[in-house]
Amino acid sequence: MVILGNVIKRAIKLRARIQFIQHPATAYQERTLRKLLRKARHTDFGQHYGFGSILEADDLLGEFGRRIPVHNYNHLYEQWWKQTHEGKRNVCWPGTTRYFALSSGTSESASKHIPVTSDMIRAIRRASLKQILSLANYDFPSASFQKGILMLGGSTHLQNKGEFFEGDLSGISAKKIPFWFKQRFYKPGGKIAREKNWEKKLLEIARKAPNWDIAIVCGIPAWVQIMMETVIRENKVKSIHEVWPNFICYVTGGVAFEPYRKGFEKLFSKPVQFVDTYLASEGFVAFQNRPDTSSMKLCLNNGIYFEFIPFDESNFNADGELVKHPRCLRLAEVEEDKPYAILLSTCSGAWRYLIGDVVKFTSKERSEILIVGRTRHFLSMCGEHLSVDNMNHAIKKMEEEFNISIREFTLAGVPYDSLFAHHWFIGTDDPVDAGALKERLDACLKELNDDYATERIAALKEVIVTILPSSSFYHWFEQKNKLGGQNKFPRVLKGKQLEEWMEFVRTNQ
Prior knowledge:
The chain is 39% helix and 22% strand. The chain is α/β, with parallel strands linked by helices. An eleven-stranded mixed sheet has the order 6-3-7-8-9-10-11-15-14-13-12. A four-stranded mixed sheet has the order 2-1-5-4. The chain is globular, with a radius of gyration of 23 Å.
């Protein structure tokens, strides 16, 4: 059967050479926008904003930016997507939308309903294929290409709402996996994938795991780590490789992976390649396509047109909310190592939509990015400008210095006397001195962020660290009925979410 693996590997390399012929990124993007506008010009949205005349403009990209306002979810849903959700045709995209991805994001408690059109499902499938083709850039054994791929996501048992179905994007995507792939490669299989009870799903995976020959695992780090720990525990082994000896690649996504790396490596007895992916409910944004970087290449020719808003005080207020007339940049105008909030226009009928993620370009030439935070997941109570990127780096440093695994963490800004404090909630099951951790965490952040160092002398008077069992964070998810799937714990808590979390901690400590 290794012959089959060799054939598949050679086919991937051949397709990769054909697939990745490089064209100018700006040409890809202008062509993508033109296709989107042409297809949607007769929709209600297209008629309202004059897509036909935009298509006739000499400066297509500039005219599009001048005509179409920037939307957040609430604006786009109330003005347009709500009609789509109620079954109306041709609102923001041609035809009827049969699927909606449920996403609470990490900033709001109410569920969002993100339209997922047939065109978007095909675009996600194309991007997934491109990522598979990119495996030709990794030195994997030929036999790996005939092994199983475990995709851990939300339940594929979608809620039938009469005119449409709704559920996790991972569940929607899994239902649309080609038959040949399901039969030959896909795990955990249809029955387990449909299971809505997270604990039952985990135990069933653990029971079946010894019968599967898994080479690749895909999913959000927190839930994949729990799954692997369950497989190890239930099968009474010490390493996941004792169950899956050919496991060689973990495709991660949804959050920055570095804070989880140490915990994952404890589960392995062989080297594993980590590959990052940026698949949001709104579309397949980017993926890592080569081994010598942790950055991801934007999907520039696959149904998404990108714009970028500099993430600074001139475009966002202290709560991470967009100002009325933000400065929006095209791909050709961005600079490396500067933070940008992403705007998407997509084949699901999102138009200049603020997705909420903040990225930086590590290579403009390659169109490669890293996710460095969320527009609302930063703290600047008094000018400290603490980003999620700062937090992730500091947490990783604490893991190394204290030789602990930090499974989850979150941060809140709180009043302190008449000024302010940062309250960290750190989830670890390893013994650690909270006082010592606080001192080193504070010192590390001062080194990483000059504004933070300045404010620690001025208005930011205290740092508080509360150590919690990692199970506390998962019990919080359970209380919210959000175990598993694509759910992620917010890195910064504010407002109602903070109140609910503080009450939960007080009640359960």
